[in-house]
Design goal:
With 154 residues, the chain is α/β, with parallel strands linked by helices. The chain has one domain: Nucleotidyltransferase, domain 5, CATH 3.30.420.10. The chain has 6 helices and 5 strands, in the order E-E-E-H-E-H-H-H-E-H-H. The protein has a 5-stranded mixed β-sheet. Helix 1 packs parallel to helix 4. It is globular and about 40 Å long.
Length: 154
């Protein structure tokens, strides 16, 4: 089964209020997700969008293409940097809490990352950007990014 996942993250102020947006498409099925946090960074939201998408899959062994405008996320995986970071226990790397979470999910499926230029009119990327921005602006429902606020991200 092939699934296309589109993700985006947003942060106002970086750090500041932030959000993520996800669009998942498989055949005729479509699912959108988003969430907002009161204080976080753009890179954390970009990575969290991928994690939330993968956590919401009900099956394993799927063929997944993840489209992101985050070179940070895309290159860390495709160039295999994250595996070297893992071997060094993420020493000196930010967002270790999220990378560890990602690495628990990664081997469950056949995943490729595809970088797309942000704000370039790509329909699904624009939708993810809208979801992320809207979630970051939802002052009533912003959650705490415990990993960021506790300093665990370093």
């Amino acid at each position: 089964m092939q699934i296309n996942i589109y993700t985006d993250g947003s942060s106002r102020g970086n750090p500041g209020p932030g959000g993520f947006g996800v669009v998942m498409i498989s055949n005729k099925h479509r699912k959108e997700m988003s969430g907002g946090f009161r204080n976080t960074t753009n890179n954390r939201m970009e990575l969290l969008a991928v994690i939330v998408a993968l956590e919401n899959l009900k099956l394993h062994g799927l063929y997944i293409s993840i489209y992101t405008d985050s070179k940070y996320v895309c290159e860390a995986v495709e160039k295999k940097w994250v595996f070297g970071w893992e071997q060094k226990n993420f020493k000196g790397k930010k967002n270790a809490d999220l990378w560890k979470r990602f690495l628990e999910l990664y081997p469950k499926n056949h995943i490729t990352f595809k970088w797309i230029k942000g704000h370039a009119g790509h329909k699904e990327n624009e939708r993810c950007d809208h979801l992320a921005t809207e979630a970051a602006d939802d002052k009533k429902n912003l959650k705490t990014d415990d990993g960021f606020e506790s300093g665990l991200y370093n």
